[in-house]
Write a structure and sequence with these properties.
single chain, 305 residues, alpha/beta, Rossmann fold, 8-stranded mixed beta sheet, binds S-adenosylmethionine
Length: 305
């Protein structure tokens, strides 16, 4: 048995919610798609991690902008299954599992878990130790006529680029769950004074939204007229809801179906960290896919007794 060197320490209750949504959708997805044997179906986890997560309550509002990770090898009992492991236990199974993970040590830990616990599936599994934006764009360029896939994009922050999302949409064969870094990055990058936004932040926002339109969308310019002068004043109008709506609107420009009610994921102090969004690429399957996604999110949002 290979040793798992490092485990992945990230998240809180919102992590569990996100994984619950994914798990429920995956089961529904394979159950439905298995009725159409003409298609080979794949699960593509483009920010795969190690397969396990230490589920502590990280207050992401105080974390860095582009990444937050802490390794911890202690109390193994607090570990929960991450997205990769969840996907491997879903029934019916996928025909193929593609796990993309940039960090070599994490890709190795995932490899170890697979060898130890899912060896029976090893012929169906591929681990890519590369940048997911590159791997996905390449995959999306293939002939998708007889293939369908569910892609899960679960970055720490701004790593899922718009060009990649666009490539996914173009296949018309992929359903997508994506974690959009609403409060964890975007709202903080949109500084009160837009003239103070550093160029690299501005470029990062362009890459995330696939447009520079955010620059006018989230700011308003007014002319303040006094007795002796006229002054142009620009102020930030972005709210969490406005940012969310803008991203959903962007997704709608490229996907045939987009869930209008994404899941807001909050930290312990009730600040929205991420938005879990869903988009469906296939015109025939989109309505059903959206309905299932909506039902799952509706149930997750129901108050617990
Ligand atoms: C939030 S974690 C994913 C957690 C995982 N979905 C789970 O449930 O266990 C994000 C992961 O993406 C990896 N990552 C960051 N940038 C990446 C990139 N450009 N391509 C592939 N993986 C990346 C990080 O190393 C990290 O393991």
């Amino acid at each position: 048995m290979g040793k798992i060197n490092k485990k992945h320490n990230f998240g809180g209750d919102w992590t569990q919610k996100k994984l619950d949504v994914l798990s429920k959708y995956l089961s529904a997805y394979t159950t439905i798609l298995k009725k159409y044997p003409i298609y080979k179906i794949a699960y593509i986890d483009a920010f795969a991690g190690t397969g396990t997560i230490k589920n502590r309550n990280v207050d992401m509002a105080n974390s860095s902008l582009f990444a937050d990770e802490i390794y911890n090898d202690t109390d193994a009992q607090e570990y929960i299954n991450g997205s990769a492991k969840i996907s491997l236990t879903v029934q019916p199974q996928f025909d193929k599992y593609i796990f993309i993970e940039l960090e070599p040590n994490k890709a190795k830990s995932l490899q170890d878990i697979i060898e130890n616990e899912f060896n029976h599936l090893k012929d169906k599994i591929k681990i890519e130790n590369k940048d997911s934006n590159i791997v996905l764009r390449d995959l999306c360029n293939k002939d998708w006529q007889k293939h369908r896939a569910l892609v899960f994009l679960d970055p720490y922050a701004m790593e899922a680029e718009w060009d990649t999302i666009q490539a996914i949409a173009k296949t018309k064969a992929i359903d997508l769950w994506i974690l959009f870094p609403l409060g964890v990055s975007v709202n903080r990058l949109l500084m009160k004074n837009r003239n103070e936004i550093p160029e690299n932040w501005s470029k990062a926002l362009d890459k995330l939204f696939g447009t520079h339109d955010w620059y006018n969308e989230f700011y308003e310019t007014k002319i303040n007229i006094s007795l002796f002068s006229e002054e142009e004043v620009t102020s930030k109008t972005a709210t969490f809801d406005r940012i969310a709506n803008f991203y959903i609107k962007r997704l709608k420009t490229i996907f045939v179906g987009v869930l209008d009610e994404p899941l807001y994921l909050y930290n312990s102090t009730n600040n929205p960290l991420f938005l879990l969004c869903f988009a469906a690429g296939n015109p025939k399957g989109a309505d059903t896919a959206i309905k299932i996604a909506r039902d799952i999110i509706g149930k997750i949002n129901e108050p617990k007794n």
